[in-house]
Specification:
about 240 residues; alpha/beta; Ribosomal Protein L4, Chain: A; 6-stranded mixed β-sheet; 7 helices; about 30% helix
């Protein structure tokens, strides 16, 4: 009688793969780079820009992305509410009436919380709430946000910013042609002429590569990147 060969689970070709080896999230794009159209300040398509798939087609972690947005939004809050305790309100420190013989409850001061105008017990005080996220998690969340935008075809290239006049109407015409409700322009370095042209347009912002984060990427509908910004992202020159 022939002996049936039994294959162990560990030697099975499909189960021998290490955990996490399969791509998760959105589909990955084949090839070494992605291509996006590049627009000039006049709103005309002038060419294409290659995006590294390690950044713009990375694994998307929705939980990490949500965590990064929550941390950033929490750190922007200012809790300034303040109330006075019984030691801070105005009023006499004298005992309001004698301890015994009145038939009423004993009290020591008119500034006690039980009286109108007295201090507040356990009231709010100005405080800072700061949440922290490790640098590797920040970078992974940023790459997830960029990958989501690229998958939704919401990433475009922009050229000619060094020749921008700094006037608002120039950028307003570009936004009108692209019909974008909100957009973020990512530059390699801070450019004052672009900041000056953008700051008076509602829903439009400009940030250098060193200051972008997952929250700003998710917040805006359309993302513009320059060639210099992509090169810095590819070198992973991200501080925050």
């Amino acid at each position: 009688m022939p002996v049936k060969k039994v294959t162990s689970k560990a030697s099975h070709p499909e189960r021998a793969k290490p955990f996490g080896s399969e791509p998760q999230g959105r589909r990955r794009v084949e090839g070494s780079s992605l291509s996006i159209p590049v627009y000039s300040l006049a709103g005309k398509e002038t060419g294409v820009l290659a995006l590294p798939k390690e950044i713009f087609a990375a694994k998307v972690s929705k939980s990490l992305l949500a965590q990064a947005v929550r941390v950033y939004a929490t750190n922007q809050k200012s809790l300034l509410a303040s109330t006075k305790t019984r030691g801070e309100v105005e009023g006499s420190t004298a005992k309001i009436y004698r301890q015994k013989g009145t038939g009423r409850a004993r009290h020591g001061a008119i500034r006690a919380p039980i009286f109108v105008g007295g201090g507040i017990t356990f009231g709010p005080k100005p405080r800072k709430i700061r949440l922290d996220l490790p640098k590797k998690m920040k970078k992974a969340a940023l790459f997830s946000a960029l990958s989501v935008k690229a998958a939704d075809k919401k990433v475009l290239g922009l050229s000619g910013l060094d020749k921008a006049s700094g006037k608002t109407k120039e950028m307003a015409k570009l936004i009108e042609k692209l019909k974008a409700k909100s957009l973020l322009i990512v530059t390699g370095e801070k450019q004052d002429n672009v900041v000056r042209a953008i700051r008076n347009i509602p829903g439009a912002d400009v940030l250098p590569v060193s200051l972008i984060n997952a929250y700003e990427i998710v917040k805006h509908e359309l993302l513009f990147v320059t060639k210099e910004a992509v090169e810095k992202l590819n070198k992973k020159e991200i501080e925050k």
